[in-house]
Amino acid sequence: MFAKPFRVKSNTVIKGSDRRKLKADLSTAFPSLSADELSELVPNKEELNVVKIYAHKGDAVTVYVLHKNPLFFEVDKKLFPTVYVLWRYPALLPAFKTWPPVLQKLTGGADLMLPGVVVPSCGLPDVKQGDSCAVTLVNNRAPVAVGTAAVSTEQMHSLGMKGRGVCVLHTYMDYLWAFGDKSGPPSLPDAESEAHGENGEECEISDKEEEVDKCVEEQHSPEETVTDQAHSGFEELSLVEQDEEKGEKSNEKEEETQDEQKTPQEVMDAMLLQCFLHALKSKVKKSELPLLTSTFLRNHMFSCCPSGKQLDIKKSSYKKLSKFLQTMEQRYNIVRVKELTKGVESIVEVDWKNPELRSFSFPEDTDVESTPLPDGEEGEIPYHPPEITTLYSVSARLEPLFLNANKRKGATLHPAEVRSIVTEYVKSNELVDENNKNYVTINPTLCDCLLEKSEYQEVVSLKWDDLFSRTLGRMQECYQAVFPGQPPIIKKGHIEPIDITVASRGSNKKVTLIKNLEVYGLDPAVVASVLQHRVQASSVLQPVPGAKDRVLVQIQGSQIQQVGKLLLDHYQIPRKYIQGLEKAPKGGKKK
Q1: Is 155 in contact with 163 (CB distance < 8 Å)?
Q2: Cis bond leading into 189, ω under 30°?
Q3: Which DSSP state fits 432?
Q4: What are the Cα distances from residue 270, in Å, to 276, 311, 573?
Q5: Contact status, residue 392 vs residue 415, Cβ threshold 8 Å
């Protein structure tokens, strides 16, 4: 349900009466929760928010958020806990166990199939069809997914453990999880797995291969919406596991024993250092400095992560990127980090001659190209502007007009499609005026859809152009942005233009402000760096008030002409999507 981005409709603080009702509903839905636990989840005096959202398929969902973490979500008047709650109360829901590689399939939007379920010695949990349940991984009781049972426990056995087991609604690492603090699951040892010990290890591994293979076969059905990325990651994990089990290479066995001796935290610390050095040596160029620490992590460090592995700072001993970079600065003196803007840290200097950095060799199991690029060349994929198309969404009022074309409320259409459907409707209902073919006779459907109440008795026909303009005027205007290699993005309303303004600072100082670069797929940090070198003036990034995850670029001086040249010539943004170019000073001879 949350495998793709959702749209937030409203975000309000819960009322006192609704807070009491939520407590009562939770007590009914989860009777195992004590009064103290309920008070901890729904405190009386702390701010609790009610967020109403629309999932990517149009489902209306209510989410209850405490301390910026979603705790519960409500679908069709049924409450479900999020993984954040289940990590605190892992026994809240009956849980089905599966293998770690299956998690990537679940995160991609797939349901849990019965061949992928690991049956413990005590048997499967007793559930009925439609009951809420959780999904855990082998060797860890911390749930990683929430859903409903597709069939009862009895039916699972009668079906021979084949078919769909759990209809997954929410998983660790989906967009609902990302709505919170993005923390990772705790390590909760599985008592049964520990009891088996090493004796059952070989048997478990062979069973794992068979179960995962069956699970993959089941999930290839067209009903499943699994991304190619998750599928490829799953195949890589399977190949790695098979290589380790067969023991074809002795050095792999040595590495495996070394990894077993290290704690998960030490393994993540080593991977973090590897990705840090790899990114500095192969990705970052001197011309990019100062570089936002968040951009460095997102665009450089993540891309240097070894294939089949995932970089998660919260699972390291550092917990935060700022603490890790501070350690790199103090212990190795590789980088210098500075807070150029309040609350926003940037890497301002890199010691390229540092012995640690120079002696670092690129690992072989990394998918990214590790050859350093010559200075002056672009280190990232060349930017291509999006193709922006105006669309129109069918409103509830106009739905009867589009029913024959199987277009329901919310369907998006190009203007040409709208004209074609309206023309077909008029002709199929023989509404063209026989005496003057430039006019269309108004029938009851067109009257309800296109006329105002005051026109019901007066207007009996409309010109074709008036008919089309009224139809488009009563539809919701949208836009579609298509970036190269990405699926189309459709949003309501007009697309926001890149806004360029000049503001005064102090007595006689001017600065140029640039907003909405993210809408067009431009990284504000990169644009600020390029402008800084072009005009030889300082630039900073500032958060946009009232806009989450957006920043504006502020550069010293009145630089509208230079900004316009960069956007028009270098990035090829059409002029109609840039606002403020007309404010540029006119060129002329000085007296």
Answers
A1: no
A2: no
A3: B
A4: 10, 11, 42
A5: yes
- DSSP bridge pairs for 561: none
Contact (CB, 8 A) for 92 and 81 = yes
The identity of residue 293, as a single letter, is T
- Determine the Cα–Cα distance for residues 70 and 248; give it in Å rounded to an integer: 46
Q: pLDDT over 90 for what percent of the chain?
A: 24
Q: What are the pLDDT digits (tens) for 456-474? A: 888 888 999 999 999 999 8
Question: From its phi and psi, is residue 344 left (phi > 0), alpha (psi between -120 and 50) or beta?
Answer: beta
User: CA 287, CA 528: separation in Å to the nearest integer?
Assistant: 11
The backbone torsions φ and ψ at residue 171, rounded to the nearest 5 degrees and listed phi first, read: -135, 160
Query: Do 525 and 517 form a contact (C-beta atoms < 8 A)?
Result: no
- Report d(CA 448, CA 445) in Å as an integer: 5
CA–CA separation, 164 vs 108, rounded Å?
A: 16
How far apart (Å, rounded) are the C-alpha atoms in residues 570 and 483?
Answer: 17
Cis ω for the linkage preceding 444 (within 30 of 0): no
CA–CA dist 355, 557 (Å, integer): 40
Q: How far apart are CA 276 and CA 291, in angstroms?
A: 14
Contact 144, 135 (CB under 8 A): yes
Q: Are 566 and 383 in contact (CB under 8 A)?
A: no
CB 89 within 8 A of CB 36: no
Rounded CA separation 295/524 (Å): 10
**H-helix or E-strand spanning residue 422:** helix 415-428
Residue 275, SS3?
helix
Nearest to 426 by CA among 409, 449, 408, 410: 449
Judged by DSSP in three states, 489 sits in strand
State the pLDDT confidence band at 273, using cuts at 50, 70 and 90: confident
pLDDT (tens digit, 9 = 90+) per residue, 415-442? 999 999 999 999 998 898 888 888 999 8
* Tokens, residue 475: 């539809």
> In whole numbers, what is the pLDDT of the chain averaged over residues?
80
Q: Measured between alpha carbons, how far is residue 556 from residues 141, 318, 347, 535, 559 in Å?
A: 54, 36, 20, 9, 8
Pairing of β 132-137 and β 95-98: parallel
| d(C-alpha 477, C-alpha 580), whole Å | 24
| pLDDT at 248 > cutoff 70 | no
Q: Scanning the structure block, which residue is given the tokens 């004590």?
A: 34
Residues 6+ apart with CB under 8 A from 564: 500, 578, 581, 584
pTM of structure: 0.39
Q: For the packed helices 201-218 and 228-246, what is the interaxial angle rounded to 10 degrees?
A: 150
